[in-house]
């Protein structure tokens, strides 16, 4: 396992096979024993090839060395869920999110939520809307959606049925990544603007197991004794919904309580104080706003990985300035596994 280096780029070499093209690498990967070939014309919904952009390879190399030397006992992973752990494209169509897969059993309200998506999603991914204005729009969208879920009579049974028939799909390599991290007692915080109850059901039905090192911070529902949704929990005194652009506001409020939870008897085999000492972070997200997920932590070194799934041409410059690594065209997690294996390798190897 090593880095290929040049004057302007570094790339992990044991899982990806690069072909140089300006500052972008067209890559193939070899999960298990199957080699998959890169294509010159990439179809993001079907191609097994992907592109990796490393804007500042020397900085990345220095960060990797620092985390590696500190040891994996100092490492934790913070990841977004929708379009980060899950795929953006599924069988040529836009993949589902933890909000989008829900079917309330009430066609009128399902249609109303779809109308909200059709209006707000283009605003969410637009690179021309100022971040402050976009944050207000996202708060508006999430608030209206949650109100419709309550008003339309969502039940927990409907959540289970919705997940069972959904096409939500994890990126290739996610399960292997979770196994790798769990085996080394590296905590994973899934920090999502989606719905915690839905995410837990997706993990349960799609992965068929739980992981002791994973905790979820997301919008959590409150159900009555008959299983009907009545409200949403609030994590902090600001009483705001978690959406894609305000995770940094909530990170400060959640970091302490969540890390206390990570030390409980159902979590890692270490107390909360030792978890708080994990001062190196690998952050995975698909929005620039996801970088705020680590704001509540007093970290020493952070490697950030951005998944740029859409509007690539217009957004690549801003993503390259924000993230240490940028995956394009709905790339898999094989390169992340290789990176984590580098971070966890023995000193001096």
Task: Report on this structure.
Residues 1-48 and 255-271 have low confidence and may be disordered. The termini are close together. This protein has helices spanning 57-70, 107-125, 131-151, 156-164, 174-183, 196-207, 247-261, 272-276, 312-322, 334-344, and strands at 3-5, 10-12, 16-21, 24-29, 50-53, 75-79, 89-90, 93-94, 188-195, 214-219, 221-223, 229-232, 280-285, 301-308, 325-328. Strands 3-4-5-15-14-13-6-9-10 form a 9-stranded mixed sheet, sandwiched between helices. By secondary structure, the protein is an alpha/beta fold.
User: Beta-sheet strand percentage?
Assistant: 15-25%
Order of helices and strands: EEEEEHEEEHHHHEHEEEHHEEHEH
Structural class: alpha/beta
* End-to-end CA span: 9 Å
Secondary-structure map with pairings?
Blueprint: E1 3-5, E2 10-12, E3 16-21, E4 24-29, E5 50-53, H1 57-70, E6 75-79, E7 89-90, E8 93-94, H2 107-125, H3 131-151, H4 156-164, H5 174-183, E9 188-195, H6 196-207, E10 214-219, E11 221-223, E12 229-232, H7 247-261, H8 272-276, E13 280-285, E14 301-308, H9 312-322, E15 325-328, H10 334-344
Parallel strand pairs: 6-9, 6-13, 9-10, 13-14, 14-15
Antiparallel strand pairs: 1-2, 3-4, 4-5, 5-15, 7-8, 11-12
Helix pairs in contact: 1-10, 2-3, 4-6, 5-10
Brief sketch in words of this structure:
By secondary structure, the chain is α/β, with parallel strands linked by helices. It has helices at about 55-70, 105-125, 130-150, 155-165, 175-185, 195-205, 245-260, 270-275, 310-320, 335-345, and strands at about 5, 10, 15-20, 25-30, 50-55, 75-80, 90, 95, 190-195, 215-220, 220-225, 230, 280-285, 300-310, 325-330.
